[in-house]
Design brief:
heterodimer, A: about 120 residues, alpha/beta, Hypothetical Protein Ychn, Chain: A, 5-stranded parallel beta sheet, 4 helices, 5 strands, about 30% helix
Chain lengths: ~120, ~120
């Protein structure tokens, strides 16, 4: 594959999980785009961080949930999982609370990384 | 500039469906190329011909159909469509159902992918 055809695509998760379908369908989109050998990353901001929290059980609210999908991101070579430091601190979360490994960046650093993307998809 | 549009909200419920359309029209008028409008999440509800709004209001599905007639591909995601009861039988003319792979191709092809949503 020619290098110039690889696009930097960042998906941004901003919402709490399960209240809306955005994160669930967003993850479906991420998996498809990842299978096209693009430079795919995910950034979690604000309440979007709660989507990463481990041991989520959606059986009582009768929603399928997406923990399995989070678990296979690595198999699809989606390893750039970024978390906003300020959002994490505001919510009293640490990296140990998350179901998958993440990299933590400040809002300013994430802003710079966003500016370098070819495509941003807010989910 | 080659522009792709990603619309993530349903018609009438959210302004995104109107803004995306107005943006597409304005971009075309300025001489840009708008290749595709990809409908995702509740956005797929934009192209059902079953909608029947009051006559003194805009008809959102017909508007997308007209834009499709001008050569812009109007595409609804199949996974999102299946969840919401959208299938080939109820699509307005000049729109079609396709997969997320198509959106990936669009993202690779265009100069800008512009998202309209909440």
């Amino acid at each position: 594959m020619e290098e110039e055809n690889v696009k930097k695509i960042m998906h941004i998760v901003r919402r709490a999980p399960h209240g809306t379908i955005y994160t669930y369908e967003g993850l479906e989109m991420v998996l498809i785009m990842a299978s096209y050998d693009q430079d795919v990353s995910m950034t979690f901001l604000g309440d979007g961080l709660y989507s990463l929290v481990k041991d989520q059980d959606t059986s009582e609210i009768e929603i399928k949930g997406f923990m399995k999908t989070l678990g296979v991101l690595e198999d699809y070579d989606v390893e750039k999982i970024y978390v906003d430091k300020e959002s994490m601190e505001e919510r009293g979360l640490t990296s140990e609370d998350f179901f998958i490994p993440v990299e933590v960046f400040t809002s300013a650093e994430l802003g710079k990384m966003m500016a370098e993307q070819d495509v941003i998809v807010p989910q | 500039m080659k522009i792709g549009i990603l619309l993530k909200e349903g018609p009438y419920n959210h302004q995104a469906a109107d803004t995306a359309y107005q943006f597409a029209k304005a971009a075309l008028k300025r001489g840009h190329q708008v290749t595709d409008v990809f409908l995702y999440n509740d956005g797929v509800l934009n192209v059902t011909k079953l909608m029947d709004p009051p006559q003194d209001d805009r008809h959102i599905a017909n508007r997308w159909s007209e834009l499709g007639g001008e050569g812009v591909r109007i595409l609804a995601c199949i996974a999102a469509s299946k969840r919401r009861g959208i299938d080939d039988g109820i699509l307005v003319e000049n729109s079609e159902i396709t997969g997320l792979g198509q959106l990936t191709d669009i993202a690779i092809e265009v100069d800008r992918l512009v998202t309209f949503g909440d």
